[in-house]
Amino acid sequence: MLMFAVASVPIIQILLVRPWLRPAMAGIRVRSVEVASLPVRGVRTSRVVDACIELKHSGTLVSFQRLVSLSLANTSRIRSTADLVEIARNPPQGP
User: Fold this and answer.
1) Under a CB-based contact definition with an 8 Å cutoff, are residues 87 and 77 in contact?
2) Which of 27, 80, 87, 91 is least surrounded, with the fewest CB atoms within 10 Å of its CB?
3) What are the angstrom distances between the C-alpha of 91 and each of 8, 25, 53, 85, 87?
4) What average pLDDT is seen over the chain?
């Protein structure tokens, strides 16, 4: 039992703490539950976190939740972080 607990600590750190720490260090407030839920929703965590940090550094105000929504709504158009940043800056117009 102890071996399982010791072995699970690096896994928790990699999956939860590291992706949450990057936006926190950039001054972006994100709950760890939001970051942890991204893979379950089918969203690449690194893409959303990188886009959020890039937009924050460029002065564009887009919430983390909005980036997740844009990522889910435009899965066929988003192939890279740059695509997500572009869509966040210029959202597609509805019909």
Assistant:
1) yes
2) 27
3) 40, 27, 18, 10, 5
4) 83
N-to-C CA span, the chain:
56
Amino acid (1-letter code) at residue 94: G
Quick one: pLDDT at residue 49? 92
45-58 and 32-41 helices cross at what angle (nearest 10)? Answer: 130
The tokens of 84 are what? Answer: 């997500």
Residue positions counted in the chain: 95
Residue 5: count other Cβ atoms within 10 Å of its Cβ: 8
The amino acid at 4: F
Scanning the structure block, which residue is given the tokens 């260090």?
Answer: 25
What type of residue is 51?
A: A
Q: Residue 37's pLDDT is what?
A: 87
DSSP state of 80: S
